[in-house]
Amino acid sequence: MFNTVLILMQLFLTVVMGIYFLNALRGQHNHKSGLESDSMRELEKLRRLKQIKLTQPLSEKTRPKALSDVIGQEDGIRALKAALCGPNPQHILIYGPPGVGKTAAARAVLKEAIASESSPFRQGAKFVEMDATILRFDERGIADPLIGSVHDPIYQGAGAYGPAGVPQPKPGAVTKAHGGILFLDEIGELHPIQLNKLLKVLEDRKVFLESAYYSSGNRDIPPHVHEIFQKGLPADFRLIGATTRSPEDIPPAIRSRCVEIFFTPLSTKQLHQIAENAAEKSGFSIGEKALSLVCTYAQNGRDAVNIIQIAASIAQLEKRLAILPEDIEWVAEFSHFTPRYEKKVTASEAVGFVNGLAVFGAGQGMVMDIEVTATPCPQGLGKLVVTGIVESQEFEGRGQRLVRASSARASVENMLTVLDRIYHIDTSSYHLHINFPGGTPIDGPSAGTAIVTAVYSAITGTPVSGLIAMTGEISIHGKVMPVGGVCAKVSAAKEAGIKTVFIPKDNRHDMFKSTDIEVIPVEHISEIFDHLFSEASTPMPLSASAAAAPKTLISAQMSEN
User: Over the stretch 264-286, which tens digit does the pLDDT of each residue have?
Assistant: First the structure.
C-alpha cells in the first residue's frame, strides 16, 4: 500500500514537472517569437528610413577630398606632409581660425601618407575623429570614450561575463586609432584629467586599465582579458589636435610633444575662389559683383559656402539660374553677417601716425594703427594718456591668482626713456595722447618701435609715410629686440599694400628676400629714424649739450616759447 502511494506521488510530481517545463519551453518559444517579430518590425522601419534621402548639402559637395582641394594653406599643407608622410611621423597641433580646412587637410594627409613608400602607415589605417568639446568624462572611470574604460560585473548590462564576475575592458578612441590618426578637434577644450591620461598614452603607446574585480589568479577570466590587463591595449597612433585658440592657451606638456603648424585666415582672393567653386557646384552662375559681396561678408570658407547655398535657394525659388548681388545682400542682412575689416594703406604722409604690426588669435597677422598727438605745455606739467591697450591681465590656476601688467604699457614707458636719454627730448613738456584705434585692446611688446616713431613724429612735426610699417620690442637703450609672428605680420602688411617693413635683425629675414615687399632688419631705433627722419634722428651722447638737440626739436621749442 505504501509503495503504491509513493509511486502515485512520483508519477504526480513527474507530470507536474513535465507540465512546468513544457509551459516554460512554450513561454520561451513565445518570447523568442515575440522578439523576432519585434526585430522584424524594427528592421522594416530601418529599411523605410534608409529609403528616405535628402539632397547632399552644398557644404558636403564642396568639402575638400584631397590636399590639392584645400585652398590657401600651401605652407600648412607642406608642413603637414613633412610631419606625417616621412618614415618618422610626428604628433601635430594645428592652429587656425574656423572654416579654413584644418579637418579636411588632416583627413587628406593620411591618404598621402599611406601612398608614401617611406611612411609606416599601412592600407586600412584609420582616421578616428573626435570633438573634445563634447567628450563625455566620468571621474569614476565608468565611461571614457577617449582612453577606454572597464565595465565591471556589478554594472547593468555586464552581459554573460557579469554572473561570472569578469571585468570587461572597453577600448577607447586611442586604441581604435591604433596604426592610424587620432584627430581631436578643439583639443584646447579637453578635460585636464583626460589630457594627462592622453599624455601618458602618447608616451607608452599603450593603454593600461585597472579594475578591483580583476585577479591574475582567477581562472574564470578569459585569456584575452588577462592579456589586456597585464600587457595593455595597443595605442600606437599619431595625434593631430586642431584648435582655434592661441598657442599660449594650450598646455605646454602637449605642445612639447607636437609639431605646431599654423593655418592662416583666407584672403579675399581665396574666398573668391571658394565662392566661385560653390556656385559652380550648385549649378548657378554668379557675377563678379556678387562674388565681391560674398568676400566682403564671409569670414572664412564655410561662411562663403553657406552664403552661396542660401543665395542659390533664393534664385531657384524665383526660377533663376543666376545669383544676383541683391541675393547676397539679402542673405548678409538677415543672417547678420559683419563685413570683413581689411585695412588698405595709402601713400599719404601723416604726422604722429604709424602702422604697427601685431598677431592675434591663432597666428593671424594684422596691421594696426598707432596715432599720437603732442600738445606743448609748461615743462614738467605734461600728461600721458594711453588708450586702446590692455592695462592688466588676471590669471587663475593651481590655487593662485596672478595679475600681470600690460606689456604694451611697458613699451610706452620704455619709449619715454629712449626719447629722454638718447634724443634728449623732454616729454614732460608735452601732453601726449597715444591711441590704438580699431576696437581691439592691444597687449604685447612688439609695438615698441612703432610707438617711439609715432611719438617722435608728433613732437617734431615730421610726417611718416603710410606705406611703411614696423614691429619690434624697444629696450630702454633703444635696441630693437626680436618678437614673434614676424611671418604673419609681414603677410598682413603685404595684403594691406605696405611697401616697407622694419623688423628686428635677430628675427629671421632671409625668407623675405623673394617677396615683393621690402623687409629691413634693424638693431637700433636710430636705424629706423635714419630712414624716416634723416639727420634729425642722429642719437646724441648722454653728455651732449641741449643746444645740440635736433633742429626739428629746437623749432618746436621756439614755437612753444
Answer: 888 888 899 999 999 998 899 99
Which pLDDT does position 548 carry in this prediction?
A: 36
Check 102, 479, 489, 494 and give the catalytic one: 489
405: phi then psi, degrees, rounded to nearest 5? -70, 155
Q: Is 0.90 topped by the overall pTM?
A: no
Active site residue 53: no
Q: Which residues of 301-333 are buried (b: 16+ CB within 10 A; e: fewer)?
A: bbbbbbbbbbbbbbbeeeeeeebbbebbeebbe
127 CB-near residues (< 8 Å, 6+ apart): 106, 107, 110, 177, 180, 181, 183
- Max Cα separation, the chain? 145
Mean pLDDT of the chain: 83
Burial string for 52-62 (b: 16+ CB within 10 Å, else e) reads eeeeeebeeeb
Please give the Cα distance from 451 to 353 (Å, whole number). Answer: 9
Closest listed residue to residue 461, CA positions, set 386, 381, 555: 555
176 a catalytic residue: no
Determine the Cα–Cα distance for residues 124 and 112; give it in Å rounded to an integer: 13
Question: Which residue in 446, 457, 465, 491 is the catalytic one?
Answer: 446
Residue 136, burial from CB neighbour count under 10 angstroms (0-12, 13-18, 19+):
exposed
